[in-house]
Design brief:
This protein has eight helices and ten strands. With 298 residues, it is an alpha+beta fold. It has two domains: 166 residues; 119 residues, Rieske Iron-sulfur Protein (3-layer Sandwich). Strands 1-10-9-4-3-2 form a six-stranded antiparallel β-sheet, with no helix packed on it. The chain has a four-stranded antiparallel β-sheet with strand order 5-6-7-8. Helix 4 packs antiparallel against helix 5, helix 4 runs antiparallel to helix 7 and helix 5 packs antiparallel against helix 6. The radius of gyration is 24 Å and the shape is elongated.
Length: 298
């Protein structure tokens, strides 16, 4: 895969790795110290979508509004518009802190090129936020023109940071549902395994029409089937630990219900694709459930 301009620039900055090596363990410790509930809140499990991209809309929208209001203020001298610009600037600053916290949480498990890109993204956002705070101070002390210039510089830096955030999502696939890229699986029931080969408390991966399916038995004896590839970062769930009727991904400890595919603990936020099951003549048969995300992709 060819490198983008942003990747080439980031790869030419070796200090980003040194920053990551010093900061990432501390971020991991801080997030873990908050416990499962805090992790799930930061990851967006409760919201069923990643929380960081949602919160970034607050500073982006607020600062864009401030930019427009500053322009109108410069042209008209309207006090009401001037107040609106300052209020929008404050809203953007407050929103940026929330976006930064959730962004650090998302970054805590990255490695390689995506980790370096994340450091560059974070550093640029920090500079942009600092310039916005400087702008607010200058405005409060009566140096409005200087404040506008500081804000314009910060807005430009934040725009570059936003581009790197887009690269993390669109180029590295950060926080996307990887089940989308799996095959749909069979539309009709297909035999995949002898019933006797599925132990009561075990996990068994089978391949059906190019799709990895994780088979298990619930505590009540029901045969369950979900996608065997963790939708968070592609971890092999058959290598994970089983906890009652859930499975914990071996990569980043996302936990899913073995029968419904629902997320119990993050960092995953999307449910695993589910497969209907039945037993016929000693064979376990599976077919794709109608609600699976792959079925919705046109």
């Amino acid at each position: 895969m060819g490198e983008t301009i942003s990747q080439r620039i980031v790869e030419a900055l070796p200090f980003l790795d040194r920053v990551a090596e010093g900061v990432q363990p501390k971020v991991q410790e801080a997030v873990e110290a908050g416990g499962t509930t805090a992790r799930n809140v930061l990851d967006g499990v409760w919201f069923e979508v990643p929380l960081h991209p949602v919160l970034t809309d607050v500073p982006v929208g607020s600062w864009t509004a401030a930019l427009v209001f500053d322009g109108v203020d410069a042209a008209t001298g309207s006090k009401a518009v001037r107040n609106a610009a300052d209020a929008s600037l404050v809203m953007g600053i407050l929103g940026a802190f929330g976006a930064a916290i959730t962004g650090l949480s998302d970054w805590r498990y990255l490695s390689g090129g995506s980790r370096r890109m994340g450091v560059a993204h974070g550093l640029l956002n920090t500079v942009g936020l600092a310039l916005s705070i400087v702008s607010l101070i200058l405005r409060a002390t009566g140096r409005r023109n200087a404040g506008r210039m500081a804000f314009l510089a910060g807005y430009s830096v934040s725009g570059m940071a936003a581009h790197l955030g887009g690269e993390l999502s669109y180029h590295y696939g950060l926080r996307v549902d990887r089940n989308v890229f799996e095959g749909t699986g069979p539309d009709e029931f297909i035999p995949v395994l002898d019933e006797a080969e599925l132990p009561d408390s075990g996990l068994r991966r089978v391949e059906v029409e190019g799709v990895g399916v994780l088979l298990s038995r619930s505590s009540s004896g029901e045969v369950c089937a979900i996608s065997a590839t963790c939708n968070h970062f592609g971890g092999p769930l058959e290598q994970g630990d089983r906890e009652d009727d859930t499975v914990v991904c071996p990569l980043h400890n996302s936990r899913f219900d073995l029968c419904s595919g629902q997320v119990i603990d993050g960092p995953a936020v999307f449910p695993q694709s589910r497969y209907e099951t039945r037993v016929r003549e000693g064979k376990i048969e599976v077919k794709a459930a109608a609600e699976n995300v792959q079925e919705k992709v046109v």
